[in-house]
Specification:
single chain, 389 residues, alpha/beta, Aspartate Aminotransferase, domain 1, seven-stranded mixed beta sheet, four-stranded mixed beta sheet, 17 strands, globular, binds pyridoxal-5'-phosphate
Length: 389
């Protein structure tokens, strides 16, 4: 199939919920993606933060192949070597979170965290932040702030309210004896790449402790090295009660997880579950992915490359840029105008970037991006961002 044929078929049969690009991608390698004709693109989106290890990593490919020819599926009631190994590895990442629930996506991890919080505390209410994004199923959507995701789907779940992000006073007023949990991204992703302040996250922990509420940290986008630590929460010296992750957990294979702290009670057989959750194929991929993250020190790479890229971005002289911010290789460039034309212009120059809201260009490259590729990215951005939209 050529590019035109592929695009025509997808446009004809798509559900309609995706804005389709006029660009077909059929192959990836490291931080590069290739279209049907072999043209190379620099991937600064990682499939929305999934491909932290880069595309077509040989260790992931090998693990998937081996496990696929051994055992793909097994319900979690039966223990399995790959799952046991992953349980040990993933609960070793955050001291204090030594149990784990496996599922298949980010939104499922958030749903599970909400259910665990309610059954554990016997309380009903959740506090989320303005600009927050936690997923698109009903519980997660109820915690998601932006009208664009919510409109037309009401009624959402009762018990959810939103407070200004990074605002300690607002959180202090909102959390009370009926709050089951506070849910926060410590760097807001979809909402525009806003890192939380140290004081905010540490105070959130203290407020939750004082009032018997749980703290859920959503690390679905920030997790697995992206911000320069394995989990972004490590920058804040705080342990949440529940930590949700997904995206890059299994090197691109669909998988989600909730890490569970000692305060979580009442998780007894039958309370929750998932048919595909903890399947040996995803577990094997995640085992390989976690090994690669450690062996290649991907968090360290993200910290060093993120600092390098940030410094260069801050030097770009353009009247169109309002602010550059982020943590590690999770970077937002806030423009004074809408960013769609800039993202299009970047794509014409073979760089795939994301937006975050209307005015922020979001860069989430694979953590294996080379310094040469970063220099190229900065060169193209300097050119593109200097022009009027
Ligand atoms: C992507 C994302 C989700 C939802 O993940 P899905 O796998 O798309 O359901 C939830 N929270 C955050 C912070 C995310 O970035």
């Amino acid at each position: 199939m050529n590019s035109q044929e592929i695009i025509a078929i997808e446009n004809k049969h798509t559900s309609g919920v995706y804005l389709k690009q006029a660009l077909t991608i059929v192959r990836g390698q490291g931080a590069s993606l290739f279209d049907v004709d072999g043209a190379e693109y620099l991937d600064c989106s990682s499939g929305h933060g999934v491909a932290n290890l880069g595309h077509a990593h040989p260790k992931i490919a090998e693990a998937i192949y081996k496990q696929a020819s051994t055992l793909i599926t097994l319900f979690e009631t039966f223990p399995n070597d790959q799952r046991a190994m992953l349980m040990e590895k993933i609960t070793g990442l955050v001291p204090g979170l030594d149990r784990v629930f496996f599922c298949n996506s980010g939104t499922e991890a958030v749903e599970a965290a909400f259910k665990f919080a309610r059954i554990s505390t016997g309380r009903k209410n959740f506090i989320a932040a303005m600009r927050a994004f936690h997923g698109r199923t009903y519980g997660s959507l109820s915690a998601t702030f932006n009208k664009k995701y919510r409109e037309g789907f009401e009624p959402l779940l009762p018990g959810f309210s939103h407070v200004a992000y990074n605002n300690i006073e607002a959180l202090d007023k909102a959390v009370n004896e009926e709050t089951a949990a506070v849910i926060l991204e410590v760097v807001q992703g979809e909402g525009g790449v806003y890192p939380a302040s140290l004081e905010y996250v540490q105070t959130a922990r203290r407020i939750c402790d004082e009032r018997g509420a749980l703290l859920i940290v959503d690390e679905i986008q920030t997790g697995f090295g992206r911000t320069g630590e394995m989990f972004a929460i490590e920058h804040f010296d705080v342990t949440p009660d529940l930590l949700t992750c997904a995206k890059s957990l299994a090197g691109g294979v669909p998988m989600g997880a909730v890490l569970i702290g000692h305060n979580i009670k009442n998780l007894t057989p039958g309370v929750h579950g998932s048919t595909f959750g903890g399947n040996p194929l995803s577990c094997a991929a995640a085992n390989a992915a976690l090994d690669v993250m450690k062996d290649e020190d991907l968090p360290g790479q993200a910290a060093a490359k993120g600092a390098y890229l940030m410094e260069k971005l801050k030097k770009i002289q353009s009247p169109n840029i309002r602010e550059v911010r982020g943590l590690g290789l999770m970077i937002g460039i806030e423009m004074k105008q809408k960013v769609t034309p800039y993202i299009k212009a970047l794509q014409e120059k073979r760089i795939i970037a994301l937006n975050a809201g209307l005015t922020v260009i979001r860069l989430l490259p694979p953590l294996v991006i080379s310094y040469e590729q970063i220099d190229h990215l900065v060169g193209v951005l300097t050119e593109v961002l200097s022009e009027e939209a």
